[in-house]
Design goal:
alpha/beta, 5-stranded mixed beta sheet
């Protein structure tokens, strides 16, 4: 018995489980030889070798008919009149060799139910001379004479999803017959030319190629290469090359299908801007899925349109070879904007290069990045932020990177799509803190940018990208603090690029119209998939909102119960003022941040000190000392990280430490060289560091012996190096070097450093206290406890770092002969003072009457009392943030319920629209148009019914659960 069988039997005796794919593989292994034997047995004909129809001598075996039956020549022709693209093999007495139905005499007759036209003359010249012949090199010709290399005369090349076939096609020649290309088209063949075609593509192969291109990103070259190999595994290069024809006919087929889907076969007018594109069924669209009744207005927050903007630099495009000879089939009719007006906008728009007041973002600093070989360096555009549907006619090409003029045009076009009456929109963009500053001014100054003045644009930044900004951007632009948008991460555009990037490599070298059509088709398919899955998406959002409301409500209630009523009233008023002022003054949103006035920082003291304490010829010495303080902090951080890593470090961790050490050593070398300038001729850079009489290890909490075990090979590690600061040299040596004026300057900078460190220490300790109260103690499961303690550990590491830096700073200050006031102000920091007590987390709790906070809680804090004001400030921020989270979840529930209604209304509107087209088609006696309209109407009706039933069932279950 196979070992896998024993495993399966052993498991069956216990608990029954679903078998894995590996279990099935183990079961198949003993059968492998049997399967192989029967696979080879299929190569031979039956013993009697009889035709399954007439029982005559069988010659042909069909590889595509079920069971690979054997036919005689006549039956093979008759059985394949309606299956002309099956592959057959011919018995040669020893084995079956590849053949084709043309060799069996199959002829396709168009018209007359597949029978020969009575008026048909021998007019094969209809199909001659309109297309080029394949030119083969002599060395490519085979030295064999098999059937596949002897095509019959008067055959056409027909490309089907099963391969490339050569078959004879006879058109109807009656007096009232349609032209040959139309006859072929009505029979499911798309001719490659129109006067005398010699090549045709079946509708099946065109549909298959477009679907392969959508799902797998298959290029036309790779797809046709596959068809050639399916046709001849030995000599695929001898199969007629129709790669260029496939690319061109696929463009025509794609255009026809798109116009058919959007109803332009039922209309006499031509499509206008964005009309060959689907949009989101769940976003509010007045007149389509939103019908305002009574005194309700579209100004309500519930009708806010949410947009996300982004750029994609993988969708680049090379300069076209013949830009003067391009044919545009759908310029501006889909998602990509029309080229002419967009080019005029770019020609007039001012290319403003502004320095970022936030962090250095790629989209800002590389806005002018250009590559001479590229016509387009990428694309950018707009999608709905809640559901991830591309907005029609809002995708633009980049010429020199992601510039404001490109995204301005995209946003203005997006704001014009089905937004009549909507007065509020939220935009999420990676660099909105910079982009939105002068957006309205740019719109007003342009002839080609249009946006109604009644539309209020609220800027936001995605929750992932906002953490790459300055800390102040978080509360000003994160979606958590924007009223009326529910729960949005603002990053959904990144997921949309993934599907678009499938075709980007193939589209890179296409002509400009072809590339635009491919991108439009891919985005339209993305929106279609979003549409048919909207029911599932909204049901998932509804469940998340139910859980979010419960959890966020509990968290807020715990904070709300403990807060005094008068403070809650004040905090709510401040929140309302901040929200109402955010558009004109983003800094008003700093209400959600901890606003504490702290002592002078190192940077302020450095600026003042360079002018006040140093001689005019040595103004840069303050910057030099500040650099030394920063190096000391980096040494402490690296030393703590090395100790925390221990002996059992991974290769990746050791490599990271090595990189940090190299970077730190470079900073130390530069600082030491500068010391020669600032410390005078009496200082020797080659002095033994031991003369500097300091050991950083003495300042850390851990036992130095623990570290020595992990750093034997790093005796000269940069984190152990003593840098030549005045405090390390000592007062006497500074006087000897004629650098005694540096002593008061370093003292001032050390005071600023101590202020910075104590401020950060207080913030992290308060965060730790709130975490204990709201996360650790309230955790009801092991998973929640693990998550809560991981947050506490992260905060504790920050506490340890700042405590070590302060201890080091104070020790250095002691070497500079501080005054009595400084000794009184900056006291030693003890380990027990860093423990969180209830006095920090809840000073009003029972048993805390005689408790007091440590001395550093009142150093340089201007809040009128260390025992209450600090805690009140932190509590206020946590209360406001908990309230914002609860409010967003409540908004999310309201919006999801509305979106369920809007989705059903959208499907019903579409069903009605197609139903009207069906009635019009019947009146005009267009039965094909009517049938298609009826099918489309039924599709949207079924989507509406399915969504309505699922939403009602979900809401009824939720109500029953709530009642319980």
């Amino acid at each position: 018995m196979h070992p896998g069988a024993k495993i399966s039997q052993g498991r069956s005796k216990g608990q029954q489980r679903i078998q894995s794919q590996n279990d099935y593989l183990r079961q198949w292994l003993p059968r492998q030889q049997s399967y192989l034997h029967h696979l080879l047995d299929r190569e031979a004909p039956p013993e009697d070798r009889r035709c399954i129809v007439c029982e005559q001598d069988g010659v042909y075996k069909c590889q595509d008919c079920l069971g690979e039956p054997l036919y005689c020549t006549g039956c093979c022709r008759s059985q394949h009149h309606h299956n002309p693209f099956h592959w057959i093999s011919q018995w040669n007495g020893q084995f079956f060799e590849q053949s084709c139905l043309a060799q069996a005499g199959l002829v396709i007759h168009l018209g007359h139910d597949g029978k020969q036209c009575p008026a048909l003359a021998d007019r094969w010249d209809l199909f001659e001379g309109d297309e080029h012949e394949d030119q083969l090199e002599p060395e490519d010709l085979p030295f064999v004479s098999g059937p596949e290399f002897q095509p019959k005369e008067n055959t056409m090349v027909i490309i089907d999803k099963s391969g490339v076939h050569r078959l004879e096609i006879r058109c109807c020649d009656c007096p009232n017959a349609l032209s040959p290309d139309i006859q072929m088209f009505r029979h499911g063949f798309f001719p490659a030319s129109f006067n005398r075609p010699k090549t045709a593509f079946t509708f099946r192969v065109l549909d298959d190629f477009l679907l392969d291109n959508l799902e797998c990103g298959t290029s036309a070259m790779n797809y046709y290469s596959k068809l050639r190999r399916m046709t001849s595994s030995m000599f695929p290069h001898l199969v007629p090359d129709r790669y260029r024809e496939l690319m061109r006919v696929a463009r025509q087929w794609r255009q026809l299908k798109t116009m058919k889907w959007h109803g332009f076969g039922h209309r006499s007018d031509i499509p206008s801007t964005g009309e060959l594109a689907l949009f989101c069924p769940a976003c509010p669209q007045p007149g389509i899925n939103v019908l305002v009744a009574g005194d309700e207005s579209l100004d309500d927050w519930k009708y806010t349109r949410s947009f996300v903007m982004d750029g994609n630099f993988k969708a680049e495009h090379l300069h076209p070879i013949k830009p003067f000879d391009e044919v545009w089939l759908s310029d501006g009719l889909g998602f990509m904007v029309g080229k002419d007006r967009y080019k005029m906008h770019l020609a007039e728009a001012a290319d403003m290069v502004e320095k970022s007041s936030c962090n250095n973002h790629r989209a800002v600093n590389q806005a002018n990045a250009a590559r001479h070989k590229l016509e387009s360096t990428g694309i950018g555009g707009v999608a709905c932020a809640r559901h991830g549907c591309f907005v029609p006619h809002s995708m633009v090409d980049f010429q020199k990177g992601e510039r404001q003029m490109n995204m301005d045009y995209a946003l203005c076009e997006a704001a014009r799509h089905n937004m009549e009456g909507i007065s509020r929109a939220v935009t999420f963009y990676d660099i909105n803190c910079q982009y939105n500053k002068h957006f309205r001014a740019r719109v007003d100054a342009s002839r080609f940018l249009e946006m109604t003045q009644d539309l209020t644009i609220i800027p936001g930044i995605g929750l992932w990208h906002v953490h790459g900004h300055q800390d102040s951007c978080y509360v000003r632009y994160a979606s958590n603090f924007i009223d009326g948008i529910g729960r949005i991460d603002g990053e959904i555009m990144e997921t949309l690029w993934a599907r678009l990037n499938l075709i980007s490599p193939a589209a890179r070298g296409m002509s400009s119209p072809h590339r635009q059509e491919c991108l439009d088709y891919q985005m339209n398919d993305s929106n279609f998939c979003k549409m048919i899955r909207m029911k599932r998406t909204l049901c998932r959002k509804y469940k998340l909102a139910m859980n979010g409301i419960t959890e966020s409500g509990k968290a807020f209630d715990r904070l709300d119960e403990a807060a005094p009523a008068h403070l809650k009233t004040e905090w709510s008023a401040r929140e309302r003022r901040a929200q109402s002022s955010r558009l004109n003054d983003p800094e008003a949103m700093d209400e959600y941040e901890i606003n504490i006035k702290k002592g002078e920082s190192t940077s302020i003291v450095s600026i003042d000190g360079s002018a006040r304490n140093a001689a005019p010829s040595r103004r840069s010495v303050a910057t030099w000392i500040s650099t030394g303080l920063a190096i000391e902090e980096a040494q402490i951080a690296l030393l703590i990280e090395v100790r925390r890593m221990g002996k059992r470090s991974t290769e990746t961790q050791r490599l990271d430490i090595a990189r940090q050490r190299d970077r730190l050593q470079g900073q130390i070398d530069g600082f030491t060289q500068s010391a020669l300038t600032h410390l005078g001729e009496g200082f020797d850079a080659d002095d033994d560091p031991d003369d500097l009489n300091v050991d950083i290890l003495d300042d850390l909490d851990d036992d130095p012996a623990d570290f020595s075990k992990t750093s034997d090979a790093w005796t000269n590690s940069p984190e152990l190096t003593v840098i030549p600061l005045p405090s390390n040299l000592g007062v006497d040596r500074c006087r000897h070097c004629m650098a005694e004026d540096l002593i008061p300057l370093e003292m001032s900078l050390r005071e600023g450093q101590a202020n910075d460190t104590l401020h950060n220490l207080r913030i992290h300790l308060c965060n730790k206290a709130v975490l204990f109260r709201t996360a650790v103690r309230q955790a009801k499961s092991q998973a929640l406890k693990t998550r809560a303690w991981s947050q506490v550990t992260s905060v504790q590491q920050a506490v340890s770092l700042h405590a070590s830096i302060y201890t080091k700073t104070r020790k250095q200050m002691m070497k500079l002969e501080p005054g009595q006031d400084q000794l009184q102000k900056f006291k030693p920091l003890l380990r027990e003072q860093l423990k969180i007590s209830t006095a920090v987390g809840d000073p009003n709790a029972r048993g805390q009457r005689n408790e007091s906070l440590a001395w550093f809680w009142s150093v340089e804090v201007d809040l009128g009392g260390p025992d209450q004001s600090w805690n009140e400030e932190f509590y206020r921020v946590h209360w406001l943030r908990a309230k914002a989270l609860r409010d967003r979840w409540k908004e999310e529930m309201t919006l999801v319920q509305l979106e369920m209604d809007w989705t059903c209304h959208y499907f019903s509107w579409r069903a009605t629209q197609w139903g009207d087209r069906m009635r019009e088609s019947l009146e005009k006696r267009l039965p094909g148009h009517a049938c298609y309209s009826g099918r489309q109407s039924q599709m949207y009706s079924l989507l509406a019914q399915d969504a309505q039933a699922a939403f009602q069932d979900l809401q009824s279950v939720s109500i029953e659960t709530g009642d319980e």
